[in-house]
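Throughout our pipeline, every protein is held as a single compact record rather than as scattered files. Nothing more is needed to write down the fold, since each code stands for a local backbone conformation. For reference, a complete record is included directly beneath this paragraph.
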Amino acid sequence: MPNILIADDEKEIAKLLRIYLETDGVNVFEANDGAQALEILEKNNIDLALVDIMMPKIDGYQVIKAIRASEKYIPVMVISAKVTLSDRVLGIDLGADDYITKPFEPLEVAAKVRAQLRRLNTSSVQTAEKRVIEVGNIVLDLDECTAAVGGNIVELTKAEFKVLELLMSQPKRVFTKEQIYESAWYDDGAVDDNTIRVIISRLRDKVGAEHIKTIRGLGYRFE
């Protein structure tokens, strides 16, 4: 039975999410501040975390950083009233797998949780064979989530890595913004065109602008 952490100082929201999630047969832990969330994470084997940003004692950003610094990969879904583009980009850059704004539909959140858990289960049963994508002098290690250009490791955020993985998976193919949304964020409501442009701009700086072409009116392709 998967263990899910709900970290939100609004107790009614945490209680509502618990009702919907427990119908899917998961075990729910509740935290009403960031310090309590970190304590639960330390003492329990958490499989997925739903994290609010504005919490007392320790905010959600610090909780996400702590999760990403741990050895175990735990999907993180932000649930926040902070709705600006800069807030969403910061959450994604820190390693959030999804960003849901309040108010939200509990059924939709439950569906997103199920999707994240399916991806987690699929990943855990994959074979130990090393999976690598190599195009020219750029190498992506899909198991270790690392990228190297000319033999030198470059630091990528999770979103940047997923977008680059998609583009490199089929060089010369044009990927639409919708396909990029699905690959990196799983939901086209989580980001907008500006977020995509920011990610593409950062990737060009890190792997070389000549590799990522904009196809006006269509999307992007890797060369």
